[in-house]
Specification:
Number of helices: 14
CATH class of the largest domain: Alpha Beta
Strand order of the largest sheet: 6-5-4-3-2-1-22
Largest sheet: 7 strands, mixed
Number of domains: 2
Bound molecules: zinc ion
Helix content: 25-40%
Number of strands: 22
Distance between the termini: 7 Å
Shape: globular
CATH superfamily of the largest domain: Ribonuclease Z/Hydroxyacylglutathione hydrolase-like
Structural class: alpha/beta
Radius of gyration: 22 Å
Amino acid sequence: MRLTFLGGAESVTGSNYLLEHEGKHILIDCGMFQGDETLEKKNVEPLPFDVHTIDAVFITHAHIDHIGRVPLLVKEGYSGPIYSTAPTKDEAYELLLDAYTLMTHKYKGDIDPPKPLFEISDIDEAMSQWHTIEYHKTMQSGPFKITYYDAGHILGSASIVVEAGLPAQAGGIKVGFSGDLGNVPAPLVKDTEYLPAVDYALVESTYGGRIHPPMGERKEKLRAIIQETVAAGGTLLIPAFAMERTQELLYELNELVEHKRIPEVPIFIDSPLAIKMTSVYKKYLNNPSFVDSETRGLVKSGDEIFNFKGLDFTVTTEESKKINSVLPPKIIIAGSGMSNGGRVLHHELRYLPDPQSTILFVGYQSDHSLGRQIINGAHEVTIMGDTVPVRARVETLGGYSAHADQPLLMKWIGALQPKPKTLFVVQGDVEEQKALRGAAEKELGIHAVIPKAGEEIELV
Ligand SMILES: [Zn+2]
């Protein structure tokens, strides 16, 4: 079996791996490159394979850096099946539509805007080719046997084990793809599952060199920040990722509000995408395949965890604008999570200069994002062409990351028994990759490598 690292190697984003065996080809993920412009230019390069040779596509989870080029595949003529879990399919549809909107809005007003990477019809077409697959049920695709495991990262996320080999070889060669691994224990999704024995494994390394603060602390910190901001008469602005972070925040706010641990203030979810994603989560809240027992128990007991006093979902632009006229204290959760776009920018224009207000980051901020600049202590930032002073209090809650930190990644790697022949460290910035490779080699005695983008490896 031959493995090619087409994306996700030497970078966090663009997850895309090609497996070839007996003349058959499958892809694991087909994500978009995100971050700085050099990286994003890679999205418009021709796909590094002939789409007509691809027999099937398997998706780990719905984040755009894992699915963003799926409609492009279809646009280029791919007519084969695409597989994922059921929640991933639902989430992917909304996220791809959102990606299309972002692509077309970016160049709004330009005389000769670049064409979007794909059209809505390509998304619809991809959806018509998209099948759902359950965890733990092995399926055969040509010479490949594929099994999905719960990655515990976001609703429906998966790690994938692919098995293929010469008929004479008992069981063939097994390779495990971590996908993105979760930050356990998370409030909604189930815990990350460890993989069975594999010959080779690919592990993500977004937080390969870092340690998250303990979960209990994050909730206490959230409560304290809300109380302090309310006492100061300010606005708490939380740029949040539409999927998982927003729903986790709602889960915890629901508990804080219902146990009267925070003062009663208006809470706005000001993101059409987050609102759609919350509906997808609602659809699966009773499903034991995807949601942990504690949350299902709450739902069973009649607690509508995405519906509590003070909570308001603002769908339309008019509703969003009305938030301005609501006097503080108030809480606004708005996308996008890295402040790269979305309604949060309008709120940042308004509240970053206000010393009574707080901006709270709850997820990964890439190197070049506005969120990163603010966290790094910028005294002023540029938002939609305006220079804005940063006088608001700036806080971060690292524990809300959907990604495993180094200790959790090491646990996942250590659970691979017997040790795989090689561990490929992928999906991380170079420093994080190196940190994780070092730890895996030193503490677990595993042969770990950082593959180069485009590198091909014969798995034997
Ligand atoms: Zn992810």
